[in-house]
Amino acid sequence: EGRLRALGLWTSCSRQHRHSRDCYLGPRERLNLSPQDRDTRAALEAALEREEVGFADLLPSQRAPLAVLRLVRGAAFTLCNRLAALRAMEVRGLVTETVVRRSAYGGRSLPEYRIAQAEPGLPPDQVTERALREGFAEAAREIGALFDPEDPYGLLLPDPASLRELLRLFGEDITEEDWRADDVLGWIYQYYQDEAREAFRRGRGRGGRRAADADEMAAINCLYTPHWVVRALVDNSLGRLLLERQGRLEEAASHRWSEEELRHAQGETVAEFCRYLVPPPAPAGPSAPKQLREIRVLDPACGSGHFLIYAFDVLWRAYRQAEPDVPPEEHASTILERNLFGIDIDLRACQLAALGLYLKAKEYAPAFRPRALNVVCADARILDGERRQAFLRHLGDDTPLQQVAERLLTNLRYTAEIGSLLRVREPFEALFRQRRMREAGQAALVEVGPEQLRLEGVVPRERTLGEILEALRAFEREAVERSDMGSRLFAADAERSLGLLSLLSQRYDVILMNPPYNKRQELPAATRGYLSERFGRTHHNIYAAFIEQAVDLATPGGFVGMLTPLAYMYLGQLRPLRTEIIGTEAPPELVLEFGWDILDPAQIQTAGTVLRKVEAGADPVRPRTFFDLTAPRGSAAKEEAFVSTLAALRRGKEPQSRYVTSLEELGRIPGSPYAYWAPAGLRRAFSRFPPLDRDNAGAPRAEKIADVKQGLATADDARFTRRWWEVPAEEIGRGRRWVPFVKGEEYARYYHDPSLVVLWEDRGKELGEFERSVIRNPDFYFREGLTWQLVNVNRRVRTRYLPPGCIFAHTGPSIFLAQPGERATFALLGLLNSSLANLAMLALTPERRWEVGQVSLLPIAPAALRTEELARAAREIHDLLAAWDTGEETSTRFVAPRLAQVAFPLPEQPGTGHPLVRDFAWPRCDPWREIASLTGSPGMPLEELLSILAERRGRLEARVAELEEAVDREVFRCYGLEEGAPAILDALRRRLGLGAEHEGDEEEVVDEAAEASDDDLDEVRQRLSHYAKRAIETS
After folding, report:
1. CA-based nearest residue to 4, from 149, 196, 159
2. CB 857 within 8 A of CB 689
3. 530 neighbors 412 (Cβ within 8 angstroms)
4. Which residues contact 947 (CB under 8 A, 6 or more apart)?
5. Strand order of the sheet with strand 756-759?
6. How far from 620 is each of 238, 508, 658, 664, 671, CA to CA, in Å?
7. Cα–Cα nearest to 343, from 332, 354, 333, 359
8. Contacting residues for 909 by C-beta, under 8 A, at least 6 apart
9. What is the DSSP letter of 911?
10. DSSP 8-state code for residue 660
11. Cα separation, 469 vs 944, whole angstroms
12. What are the sequence ranges of the domains in the chain?
C-alpha cells in the first residue's frame, strides 16, 4: 500500500461522497515521478481498470476500492510465489542463492554481498531489492510463466521490514528437506488461502447463503489432495492406460509387492512405479493403442499441479521404456508440450503448477529448457467497450463469425468463477451449423450445369473453432503492437482465453481432478444461471457439473480420476449423474470411499473415483470394484488400510474392505445409490416390500403404509416457542394458547418427552401472519404417530413415539400410519429402530441429515406391522424409558428425583399438570416391577442410595438391550432374513465405524468409571435442585 501511495494510487479515500476511480488515482502532474515510476504507474492503472471488470455487477462507487484491494493482494501473492519459486530452485542448484542468507556473506545472500561490494554506498534496502530483481530476471530466463518482467503484479515490493521478514520466513523457517519435496508448493498454496477461506466462512455465518466472488471461490476450494490419493487415482487411470498399451496390465496388477514395497513409488518402468494399481475384477476389453505423444492428460482444476506432477513421473517412465536412446531433455519437453494440460481460475495456482512441472522436468533432465507449458489460467477479464467492439470489427463482414465471437466473449464473463466448466463445442457448433445451412441455401439459388462445381465447392470452407482461435490470435498480435498498457493487458487476457478455449475444445485420454466443492447457493447469481442452462442434470453442485464436463471431454476408453464429495454416490438430486452420465457414459472402474479426514481442513466426506468412458464393444454389466475406507481415522490410517487391502488382493485373498458388484445390482435400491456394501438381502428387501410412504417414493401402485410429513417452521423460535415450564399448565393443550411442540432436539430412541410448546392461539393465527413462518401439513397436527430426529450426528436411527395432541416441527418430521392402531404403531416403532432399518437408511444416504424423501423409501414388510411380539417389545422399551424419565425434573412426567424414588414410596401420578400425562400409568411389566423393588430408606447414607440407583440403571439398560435384540430378531424374521442377519449386523457395525479398531460408538470410547461418577453427581444435583425449589415454593 505504501508503494501504491508513492505512485499516487491511493488505497483509501476519506472524503464523504460517492467514490469513483478518481479518488484512487492522484494527479500525475503533482508527483515527481521518475520515468521508470511513470511506466510502473501506467501499468498499474491499466491493471486497476482490468480488476474493475471483475466487479462489473457492483455500483461504480464500490468497484474502485475493491479493485485496489485485489491489486494489492495479487501483488502480494505474486511476490510470495516468486520467493517460493526462487527458494525451490535454489535448493536444487538451478539458480544463484538469492533468498537464503549465509553467515559467510555477513548474513546476506550471495547477490546482496556482490552488489554491496561493488557499490559500498548503496543503502541496504536498495541492495536487497536489486538482488531480488536480479534473481527474478535470472529465473525468468528459465521459467517466464512465473517471472514475467512485464507482469504489473510483479512491479511492487513491500516495505523493507516486511520484505526482510518474508525472506527470513522462506529462507529459515522452511527446511531445505521440505523445499525439495514435490508437494511443498501445494501446501504453500493451501496455506496462502487459509485466512481468506476462514473469513468467507465467518462472513457467511451459520447457515449463511452469501455467494462467493471469484477470489473467494479460489480460496475456499484450495484443498490439498494427499499424495497417496493422487497416486491411487493416477496409477489406476493413466498408469492403467499405459500398461494396457504395453500389454502388461495383468502382469503389473498381479505382482506380489509387500505392504512396505507398495508404499514407495519407485522403479524404472511403469509397472514397477504404479504400485497402487488395483487388480480389475474382469478385463475391460481391448482399447485402440495410441502413440505416447498422442496421450493427453488434463487437470481442469489443477491448483498447484499435484496430479500433473505425479503424472509426469508416470509418463517419464513410459517414454524411457519406449525410447531409451532419445535425449532425456527431449522427453521432458515432449511430456510438457504434448501430454500434460492444466486449467485453474487462480493465476497464482497456475504459476505454482508451472513451476512444479518445470522442477520435475529438471529433476529428470538437468539440461531441459522449457519451450511450452500448457497450464492456462481461466481468470480472464475481457474488457467491454471499445476494445471489445474493435475485436468484433476485426472479423470483417463475416456476420456468423461475429455471432460466434459475441457468444464467446459473453461466456468468458463467467470464467473467473466457473473456469473449466465453460462449454465450448456445443454453442459454437450450433452456430456453425446455422452458418453452413445459410450459405448452403444461398448456393442452391445458383443455377449449375452438370459440368459445374458441386454444392460444396460453391460454399466457402467452414471455419472451425481452431480458425476462430487463429483470428483471435491475429487480433492479439495487433493489440500488442499498440503502445498503451491497457491494450497489452487486453492481449494477455485474450491469450489466456485462447488457451482456455483451445484446451476445452479438445478430447483427453485421462482427466484427473479435485474439483471445487461449492454448493449452488455459494455461487454468484450469473454463474448459477449459466450452470442451469448448460448443466441441467448436475447444476445443483459445482463438482457434479465438473464430472459431467470431464466425461464429455474424455475420449472413448479414456479415464476420469477424481476426488470429490462422496455425496454423489448417494444424493437423490444427483441420481441423473449416477444413472444417465456415469452409469451410461462412463461407469466407475474403481471407487475408494474415504469418508472423513482426507481433506484438511475441510469437514467433508470424500471418495476417490476412477471412471472409464464407454467405447464400442464394452461390457455394460462388468463388475466394479469398491473399497470401504470409511472406518480408519485420519488420512495416514486410511492409506494403511488401502495398502493392506491391496496387498491382500495381490496375494489372492478376499479382504473384507473390498467389494465387487455391478451397477445393475446397485440399482435395486431406490435412487441407485452406490451402496456397494449392502448385503444382497437388504437390496432385495427394497424391491420386495412397499416403501414407507408410496406417495413420496413415487410408487402409486404400492401398498399404502403411512404418510411421512414435514412439520411447522416458525422461523423465529424465540418469539413463538417456550419450554413447557415457562407457561402455566392450564394454558397448554389443544384449543389453548400453547400446544406441545416436537422438534427432535435430543438423541432419543423409542421415547422422547416434548419439552417445548408453540404459540397456537386461534389455530396459529399469529404464526400464519408471520411472513417467514411455514405451516406445513396442519391436517396431521395433533395425531398419534412416530417422529425422528432430522440430524443424526452418529447416523443411528432415532425414531420415537409421537403422542396425540402435539404439533411437529420441520426438524422433527413425523410418520402417520394409514391404518393406525396401537399394535401397528408400536410395531412400526420397533421396526424403524431396528438394525435392518438403520442399515437401510445408511444405504440411502451417508449424511447425518435424514430427509423426508429418504425415510419415505424405507422398505416396510406389512406382516411386521401385525406382529404382536414386535409391538410388545417396542412398547416395553418405550414404557421403561418413560418411567425412568419420571426422575428428570424438566420432564412433563416428573414425579421425584431418582434418588428420592429409591428412598421413598413412589407417587401414583406426576405433579406437573401437563396435558400429556393425564393418563399416566407406571409400567405393568415384570422387569419394571423388579427394578422398582430395588429400594432403600430415607435414613440410608447417600453412597448406598447411589449404589442402589446404579443397580436400577444397570438392570434397565440390560433389559432395553435384551429387548432391542428381540426387535432385531423379529424384524429379520418378518423380512425372511434370518440367515442373512449376521451379514447385515456386520455391515452395520462397519458403516458406523464399530469394528475391532473402534469399539463403542462413533464418538471416542469413554472411561466407564468416570461416566458413572458423572451420573452420580447429576443425580445428586437433581435432588438438591428439587429440594431447593420446594423450599422456595413453600417459603
Report:
1. 159
2. no
3. no
4. none
5. 721-723, 756-759, 738-742, 807-808
6. 22, 22, 21, 9, 19
7. 354
8. 895, 917, 920
9. S
10. E
11. 88
12. 2-177, 219-378+505-671, 386-421+425-447+456-501, 683-1025
3-state SS, residue 366: coil
Mean pLDDT across the stretch 631-637? 92
Residue 26 has pLDDT above 60, yes or no: yes
d(CA 539, CA 163): 44
Report the distance separating Cα 759 and Cα 714, nearest Å: 10
Q: How far is CA 111 from the centre of its chain?
A: 45
What's the distance, CA 943 to chain centroid? 52
Cβ-based neighbour number of residue 782 at 10 Å: 17
- pLDDT tens track for 506-560: 999 999 999 988 777 777 777 888 889 889 999 888 999 999 999 999 999 999 9
How long, in residues, is the chain?
A: 1035
pLDDT tens digits, one per residue of 115-143: 999 999 999 999 999 999 999 999 888 88
The SS3 call for residue 527 is helix
Q: Report the C-alpha gap between 826 and 819 in whole angstroms.
A: 13
Q: Residue 324 to residues 309, 328, 995: CA-CA distances in angstroms?
A: 21, 9, 50
Confidence of residue 817 (pLDDT cuts 50, 70, 90): very high
Burial class (CB in 10 A: 0-12, 13-18, 19+), 272: middle
Distance separating alpha carbons of residues 92 and 43, to the nearest angstrom: 34
Contacts within 8 Å (CB) and 24+ apart, 322-328: 322/292, 327/365, 327/367, 328/364, 328/365, 328/367, 328/368
- pLDDT tens-digit map of 841-862: 999 988 778 899 999 999 999 9
Distance CA 559, CA 240 (A): 9
What predicted TM-score, i.e. pTM, was given to this entire model? Answer: 0.85
What's the confidence (pLDDT) of residue 393? 74
C-alpha R_g of the chain: 34
How far apart are alpha carbons 338 and 111 in whole angstroms?
Answer: 37
What average pLDDT is seen over the chain? 85
Q: Which helix (H) or strand (E) holds 1011?
A: helix 1008-1034
Q: What is the CATH number of domain 219-378+505-671?
A: 3.40.50.150
In one-letter notation, the amino acid at residue 972 is: F
| Omega before 158 within 30 of 0, i.e. cis | no
- Please give the residue that has the higher pLDDT: either 498 or 47: 47
- Answer yes or no: is pLDDT of 741 > 90: yes
For 630, 665, 804, 836, 973, the CA distances from 679, given in Å and listed in that order, are 17, 11, 37, 11, 16
* CA atoms of 266 and 244, how far apart (whole Å): 20
Vertex 211 angle, CA 208 and 217, to 5°: 115
Higher pLDDT, 806 or 503: 806
Those residues whose C-beta lies under 8 Å from the C-beta of residue 419, and which sit 6 or more positions away, are: 300, 301, 343, 344, 345, 378
Of the options 3.40.640.10, 3.90.220.10, 3.20.20.70, 3.40.50.1240, the CATH number for the domain spanning 683-1025: 3.90.220.10
| Beta bridge pairs of residue 807 | 741
Mapped to the 3 state alphabet, what secondary structure does 801-849 carry? Answer: EECCCCEEECCCCEEEECCCCHHHHHHHHHHHCCHHHHHHHHHHCCCCE
Which run of H or E residues covers position 740?
A: strand 738-742
User: Nearest 5°: phi and psi at 102?
Assistant: -125, 140
Q: Quick one: pLDDT band at residue 949, thresholds 50, 70, 90?
A: very high
Nine-digit cell string for 146: 512465473
How far apart, in whole angstroms, are the C-alpha atoms of residue 283 and residue 612? 13
Residue 314's identity, in one-letter code, is V
pLDDT level of residue 1025 (50, 70, 90 thresholds):
confident
Spatial CA neighbour of 509 closest among 608, 611, 609? 611
